[in-house]
Write a sequence for this structure.
C-alpha cells in the first residue's frame, strides 16, 4: 500500500512538475530574464526591455542550458514533494468523509493546494522578480510558511468538520496571518495590481511585476489542477480505492 502510494505520488508529481516547467518556460522565465537585465544595467530604457529579455530567455549556451535543466529538475522534485502531501490528503479525505475518489475530488484538492501555497501567501507577498524583494528574508519566509500552514489547517477544519464552532475556528485560522500582516514593507497582490509606472530607481516597471505575478499564479494554478486530478486518477487505478 505505502509503496504503491509512493509510486502514485512520484508519477503524478513528475507530470505536474513537467507541465509547470513548460508553462514557466513560456510565461515566467522570459520575465525573469528581463528583470535580471535591470540588476546589471541601471535604469535600463523601457523600450529595450523586451529585446534584452528575448536574448536571455533563449540562452542555449552551456550555462543557460544548465540553468534550464536545474529549473526543470526543481519543478519535478517540488511536484513529487507536493504530490506526497496531496495523496496523503486524498486518503484522509476519503477515510474521514467518505468522498468519492474521482477527478472532482482531485480538482478540489488541487484548489486547496493552490490556495494554501500560492494564492494566500501572494495576498501578502506577491510573487517578486529578482531585485524586488525587500526586508528581512527570514521574516518573509516565516510568514509565507505560516500562511500556508494556517490555510491548510483552516480549510481542513472547515471541510472535515460538521459546522459550528470548529468551522468558525477554521475561518479564523484562515484569516489570522492576513490580520497579522506580512513583514516589513512587503507588497501584496492587490496592492501590486494597483501600481503603475516605475518601481524603484533601477528601471523595473509595475507592468512587468504585474505580468510576472499573474503568470506565476497561473502556472501554479495549472500545476495544482494537474497534480490533484492525476493523483486522484492514479490512486483510483492503482490503489483500488474506488
Amino acid at each position: 500500500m505505502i509503496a504503491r502510494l509512493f509510486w502514485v505520488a512520484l508519477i503524478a508529481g513528475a507530470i505536474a512538475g513537467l507541465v509547470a516547467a513548460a508553462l514557466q518556460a513560456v510565461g515566467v522565465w522570459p520575465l525573469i530574464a528581463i528583470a535580471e537585465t535591470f540588476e546589471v544595467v541601471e535604469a535600463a530604457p523601457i523600450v529595450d526591455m523586451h529585446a534584452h529579455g528575448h536574448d536571455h530567455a533563449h540562452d542555449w549556451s552551456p550555462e543557460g542550458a544548465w540553468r534550464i535543466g536545474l529549473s526543470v529538475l526543481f519543478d519535478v522534485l517540488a511536484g513529487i514533494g507536493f504530490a506526497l502531501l496531496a495523496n496523503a490528503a486524498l486518503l484522509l479525505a476519503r477515510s474521514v468523509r467518505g468522498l468519492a475518489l474521482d477527478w472532482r475530488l482531485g480538482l478540489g484538492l488541487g484548489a486547496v493546494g493552490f490556495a494554501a501555497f500560492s494564492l494566500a501567501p501572494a495576498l501578502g507577498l506577491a510573487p517578486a522578480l529578482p531585485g524586488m524583494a525587500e526586508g528581512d528574508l527570514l521574516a518573509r519566509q516565516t510568514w509565507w510558511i505560516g500562511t500556508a500552514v494556517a490555510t491548510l489547517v483552516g480549510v481542513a477544519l472547515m471541510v472535515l468538520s460538521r459546522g459550528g464552532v470548529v468551522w468558525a475556528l477554521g475561518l479564523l485560522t484562515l484569516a489570522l496571518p492576513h490580520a497579522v500582516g506580512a513583514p516589513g514593507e512587503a507588497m501584496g497582490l492587490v496592492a501590486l495590481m494597483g501600481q503603475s509606472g516605475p518601481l524603484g530607481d533601477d528601471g523595473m516597471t509595475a507592468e512587468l511585476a504585474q505580468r510576472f505575478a499573474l503568470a506565476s499564479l497561473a502556472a501554479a494554478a495549472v500545476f495544482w489542477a494537474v497534480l490533484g486530478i492525476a493523483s486522484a486518477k492514479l490512486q483510483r487505478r492503482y490503489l483500488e480505492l474506488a
